[in-house]
From TrEMBL, chains A, B:
Cobalamin biosynthesis precorrin-8X methylmutase CobH/CbiC domain ranges (all copies): 9-203
Protein family (similarity comment): Belongs to the CobH/CbiC family.
Name of encoding gene: cbiC
GO molecular function, one term: precorrin-8X methylmutase activity
InterPro entries attached to this UniProt entry: Cbl_synth_CobH/CbiC, CobH/CbiC_sf
Transmembrane segments: none
Metabolic or biological pathway, per its Swiss-Prot or TrEMBL entry: Cofactor biosynthesis; adenosylcobalamin biosynthesis
Protein name: Precorrin-8X methylmutase
Length: 209, 209
């Protein structure tokens, strides 16, 4: 069996294929790098149609990353999916609270998702600039409610909860606030997609292999 | 905003919607639970057509889980995506070596992927029964070569590397060996899909919330 076994070559060739198959669909360079990295992660070209930027989500998010602001992720999968070296290079921390014992306990008591309680915990930390949601519509709802109440002012919301109950609807609710956002419309999204968005943005700050 | 905020309810309703939309496409119960959990994870119904079982992959995999055999996962995302409580209930450990310093060092020296070296390391551990690949075609190729050489005899290969270079081809190579397997044909797959397959099988052993 012959195959390309060099990681850098594999990635470069993958991006060439993606660019080829996107064909006429050409995006501005910074957007293109996000679109392509999502497709690289999912092998699903539909994402080119589902990605939406609002209220200078890209610019505000890049600024937050430059300032080394913290990222709150609603899943551990996002945490492990984001390039650790790139985070370290820019002094950025990515945190997730949904598995914390205090969060689990409170969620059970209140009969709500751990994601809701974890988001509430994240919102108390004023060093968080980016809220990245790949799993729980309830986390996104909680965040949107707090923004509406004037209790949160995110630099960027990555709204990409996946699923059949509440996910598409929660993303539509983003239209009701003026927070900078990057979203995946519809049911699709998920932790690898969120990690891909963050990685693409981090790599734009400068990448070392 | 009104929304379902009870985790069990959200999952049940999601599975109802998936069953509804699968329509005429009815699968045997054990297979159905895997198909539906993958769709639940990806919001992508195409997976119903991409999932393939070979050489009693399901039966052999369930037996390995019953015996508490170790799972090797090629990504940390799979590790964190598999239900920890379900693993603990059945005394099953899931390991990943691709971030080990010795693995990274050797990969760099040899100019191969960390996934290849990590798979070689996993193959030395005879307590591993299930090899779960969601990312690296090179990990799957390495495994297939070792099986062909008579140096590995997996209870189950979950072959679901995702991507544009080598992924689809690596899965076709599974036809050249008689190992029990569950695969995702074509370019699609990925860590959340692999985690969904493992979770569905673990839940069939008995689930407590």
């Amino acid at each position: 069996m012959e195959f390309i076994n060099n990681p850098r070559e594999i990635e470069e060739r993958s991006f060439e294929i993606i660019t080829e198959e996107l064909g006429d669909r050409v995006f501005p360079e910074n957007i293109a790098s996000i679109v392509k990295r999502i497709i690289h992660t999912t092998a699903d070209f539909e994402y080119a149609d589902l990605l939406e930027f609002s209220n200078d989500g890209y610019e505000s998010g890049m600024e937050a990353l430059k300032q080394g602001k913290k990222i709150y992720a609603d899943t551990r999968m996002i945490q492990v999916g984001v390039n650790k070296k790139a985070l370290a290079d820019h002094g950025i921390e990515i945190v997730n609270y949904s598995h914390d014992p205090d969060v689990a306990k409170e969620a059970k008591l209140r009969g709500v998702t751990r994601s809701t309680v974890a988001m509430e915990k994240a919102l108390k930390d004023k060093t968080v600039g980016i809220y990245a949601i790949g799993n729980a519509p309830t986390a996104l709802y909680t965040l949107i409610e707090k923004v509406k109440a004037g209790e949160a002012k995110p630099d960027l919301i990555i709204g990409a909860p996946i699923g059949f109950v509440g996910a598409a609807q929660a993303k539509i609710e983003l239209d009701g606030i003026d927070s900078p956002s990057i979203r995946i419309n519809g049911r699709k999204g998920g932790s690898p997609v969120v990690a891909a968005i963050i990685n693409a943005m981090l790599y734009q700050l400068g990448r070392e292999w």
